[in-house]
Amino acid sequence: xxxxxxxxxxxxxxxxxxxxxxxxxxxxxxxxxxxxxxxxxxxxxxxxxxxxxxxxxxxxxxxxxxxxxxxxxxxxxxxxxxxxxxxxxxxxxxxxxxxxxxxxxxxxxxxxxxxxxxxxxxxxxxxxxxxxxxxxxxxxxxxxxxxxxxxxxxxxxxxxxxxxxxxx
Amino acid sequence: xxxxxxxxxxxxxxxxxxxxxxxxxxxxxxxxxxxxxxxxxxxxxxxxxxxxxxxxxxxxxxxxxxxxxxxxxxxxxxxxxxxxxxxxxxxxxxxxxxxxxxxxxxxxxxxxxxxxxxxxxxxxxxxxxxxxxxxxxxxxxxxxxxxxxxxxxxxxxxxxxxxxxxxxxxxxxxxxxxxxxxxxxxxxxxxxxx
Lengths: 168, 194
Known about the structure:
The complex is a heterodimer of chains A (168) and B (194).
Chain A (H helix, E strand, L loop, with lengths): L1 H28 L2 H18 L7 H16 L22 H18 L2 H10 L6 H8 L3 H26 L1
Chain B lengths: L3 H16 L7 H42 L3 E2 L6 E7 L16 E5 L5 E7 L7 E2 L18 H12 L1 H5 L30
Antiparallel strand pairs in B: 1-5, 2-4, 3-4
């Protein structure tokens, strides 16, 4: 009976946080299937270990998902920022297409950021996580999280400005 | 692209990939189904382990009860060295329970032979029940004397010199001649009576 009650509670946790856990895993893996596998593994571990003493369920789940996703990354994405080719210099007919090119370029830049800058930036994009929770997920301080996000934004802006200046 | 607002817009759109990422439909149900499968597996595993544990406990209790109720108990007596003084010329009596593994014969100053039975008694004493066996002062217990032994003891008490005398087996036994007188025939006796 106790197990049935625990399963019912866990079901409510799954329905409430599964999509958020998926986003955390996707932020690391950038693959839907791998991210869903991580979600399943997260809840299997939660079922095994129990979750009665957890104070911040969202941060706890995000921490488990983040670590499992990191473990799943067998080989680091060894992409260097300098290796990323800027978009084509051909003039775009429409401003929307130009903007789309810039967004794609920034996405590649984000993916090529060092891990200590990329993960705080990606996690900060999720509205569900505060700076304190991101710090808990990354096992660091809140001020360090803010500093890393600031440096990541600064680096991306410099790269994007350099590309724009080169186009002119 | 030096305008911060424009950069923020581009960065926000780039990060939207992570913000709006959605799993395939039915992910929650798939997760719950896997959880229920794991719960069933755990129940099966616990059931198997509990059955094995119960069987082990039952076997242990049965073995314990069997040992406690065993009617016969094997007791190994410790090694004993027994000295027994016997009369000269008399063979050492064999004990029913002793198994002599070594037998030494020595001469005592008194002249009597002493047979040392260095015996490792490994006889298995069959005991009934669990009551402790009372320790005997002398083992084996003395048996009552036979009539001949009692007569010999009385003779040794009253006439000890008779036992110390040398046997007279070497002397010739002389018998007095037996004189048998022939039968005398009386007149008108046996013959012609009829």
